[in-house]
Amino acid sequence: MININGNLLEDNEATLSIANRGYTYGDAIFETIRVNAGTILFWEDHYFRLMASMRILRMQIPMNFTPEFLQEEILNLIEKSGLMNSSVRIKIIVNRKEGGLYTPVTNDVDYAISVKQLTSKFYTLPDSFYEVTLFKDHYVPSDLLSTLKSNNKLVNILGGIFAKENGYDNCLLINTSKMVIEALNGNLFLVKGNKIKTPPVADGCLKGILRTQLLRIIEKLPDYELEEASISPFELQKADELFITNVIQGIQPIHKFRKKEYTSDITRRLLGVLNAQIRIGG
User: Fold this and answer.
1) CA 84, CA 167: separation in Å to the nearest integer?
2) Domain assignments of the chain as residue spans, ordered by start
3) Residues 94, 150: contact at Cβ < 8 Å?
4) Can you give the pLDDT at residue 122?
5) Residue 280 confidence (pLDDT)
6) Average pLDDT along the chain
7) Most buried residue, 69, 162, 182, 204, by CB count within 10 Å?
8) Could you tell me which residue, 277 or 147, shows the higher pLDDT?
């Protein structure tokens, strides 16, 4: 089922206007959320990122868009879909109401919430070999808009096509300063010795929710030194481990980049700590 502006519809009954601004101009943002057996993971972080993104895009936040209201909308959709005991992927899309050309006639918004079942309650490390490459056809600007989950994702789409056509599992994106900032579908972390490094948001990477969780976890682990700093392509081949994070899949270790192959010992430890926190929080 799908929730459109508070109305629950079957998937085959849901329609989108040809004048929808998310469709015509990419004038929309979205939030992807994992829910395990009725527990919304990292809900506070998701909610505040959504509100901050709406403010940045000058959208009018409805008075009823409280954490409690949106949480109830999410859980009601899951329940009506018969998935309350399952792990699911929730996607909230907020778009400006239709009207106008580049300049909208209003900043009021519509919203839609969709649900899709997942296979595992907790995060697991995939067994399959995972190889990535750099996507150098297009660059991501190092600005605030690049950090948002907006409907403007052409670089990611073209990178996905490039990876598929050339036999890679993923591509790493680079910004206009030629620094590596993230993967197509998540944030990038690099491990060298006891140092764990990830690009700063100022470089144009997504302000990922699971990225935030891992930063909090790593800061509390005395064995590791955490650094938010730019990563050059040259550093990738000197690393011991590379991994990608997103809130749906969790942590994806990278096994190969060019001729370099990587281990995943620290990646596995971090995944264990993450899952332990989820169990305690749940």
Assistant:
1) 37
2) 2-117, 131-281
3) no
4) 83
5) 59
6) 96
7) 182
8) 147
| Percentage, residues of the chain above pLDDT 70 | 99
pLDDT at 281: 54
What percent of the chain is modeled with pLDDT above 90?
94
Q: Give the pLDDT of residue 278.
A: 84
Residues 80-104 have a mean pLDDT of: 97
HEC per residue, the chain: CEEECCEEECHHHCCCCCCCHHHHCCCEEEEEEEEECCEECCHHHHHHHHHHHHHHCCCCCCCCCCHHHHHHHHHHHHHHCCCCCCEEEEEEEEEECCCECCCECCCCEEEEEEEEECCCCCCCCCCCCCEEEEEEEEEECCCHHHHCCECCCHHHHHHHHHHHHCCCCEEEEEECCCCEEEECCEEEEEEECCEEEECCHHHCCCCCHHHHHHHHHHHCCCCCEEEECCECHHHHCCCCEEEEEECCCEEEEECEECCEECCCHHHHHHHHHHHHHHHHHC
Residue 51 burial (CB < 10 Å; 0-12/13-18/19+)?
Answer: middle
As a CATH number, domain 131-281 is 3.20.10.10
Q: What is the fold, at CATH topology level, of the domain defined by 2-117?
A: D-amino Acid Aminotransferase; Chain A, domain 1 (3.30.470)
Look up the pTM and report it.
0.95
